[in-house]
Design a protein that fits this description.
The protein has 271 residues and is an alpha/beta fold. It is built from 11 helices and 7 strands. The strands form 2 sheets. It has a 5-stranded parallel sheet, sandwiched between helices.
């Protein structure tokens, strides 16, 4: 328990330090994001990888916090109350919601009910919901279409944003079945898999291509990183065209995530 408290306190102190540093300078306003999910977010520290890409790309500081206990569903997050407390702390630009990886396939109704509850709290704080679409397990790639559809439908229902990570994984694996996105457990992401996810988030949040950014952030060489960067950008752009998903910077300079709004149509354990 003390170790857990220490880690949470350290993460909070780190976030406060980053925000203070940003305020002290004259640079652009940082992007603040809260991640609510489980080990599909915490493995390889996805938020930190996004922050490193933003730094390398010369983008506004990406400041983040996480609530990611292993195996946690939206329902458990809601019932525990900790996620709602962190949302209520305010100051977020985005709150990223990542469901337990099998729930879209086994109980999409429950997923939608509790996502709507969390989304309501997010909207109260004036933040934007960003749904983190995850990937199919290595031994059931045929489930990706259904998994992707559930997230896109939920995005429309909530008028929320969607980061199409699962769709990018599907594209990458079709292009190169040996690209090694899964860990040996056939479920969680390898560093390459997390890097692809981070590239998708970078493209969605900042509205620019991750192509040309360093792969060393995930211990990848350029030959390994470049195809993943291109696939991330292609997936986000294609989703914008086919589903009406908007990306990029608003005219007022505010950061804009992918959105399926209206007629624009625009840890360990099982994750």
């Amino acid at each position: 328990m003390n170790d857990t408290v220490s880690r949470v306190s350290a993460a909070g102190a780190c976030l406060l330090g980053m925000l203070a540093a940003a305020r002290a300078g004259e640079g652009p306003k940082p992007v603040r994001a809260l991640f609510i999910g489980n080990s599909h977010t915490s493995y390889n520290n996805l938020p930190h990888m996004i922050a490193e890409l933003a730094k390398a790309g010369g983008r506004p500081l990406f400041a983040y916090a996480m609530e990611t206990p292993g195996g946690c569903t939206f329902e458990k997050h809601w019932q525990d109350g900790k996620a709602a407390e962190r949302i209520a702390a305010g100051g977020w630009d985005f709150v990223v919601l990542q469901e337990q990886s099998l729930m879209p396939l086994t109980n999409a109704t429950s997923m939608a009910v509790y996502a709507e509850k969390l989304d309501g709290e997010i909207k109260k704080q004036g933040a934007r919901t960003l749904l983190y679409q995850t990937w199919a397990r290595q031994n059931t790639p045929e489930r990706q279409a259904e998994l992707s559809r559930v997230y896109l439908d939920l995005g429309r229902k909530l008028e929320a944003a969607v980061a199409p990570v699962g769709m990018a994984w599907e594209r990458a694996l079709k292009a190169n079945p040996n690209c090694g996105l899964h860990r040996p457990d056939k479920n969680h992401a390898s560093k390459a898999g997390t890097y692809l996810a981070a590239c998708v988030f970078y493209a969605v949040i900042y509205g620019v291509s991750p192509e040309g950014l360093p792969g060393g952030i995930a211990d990848l060489d350029d030959g390994e990183a470049r195809p993943l960067q291109a696939i991330a950008w292609q997936t986000v752009q294609q989703l914008a065209r086919t589903q009406g998903v908007k990306t990029g910077q608003g005219s007022d300079g505010e950061n804009a995530a992918a959105s399926t709004t209206g007629d624009q149509k625009g840890d360990e354990g099982e994750q």
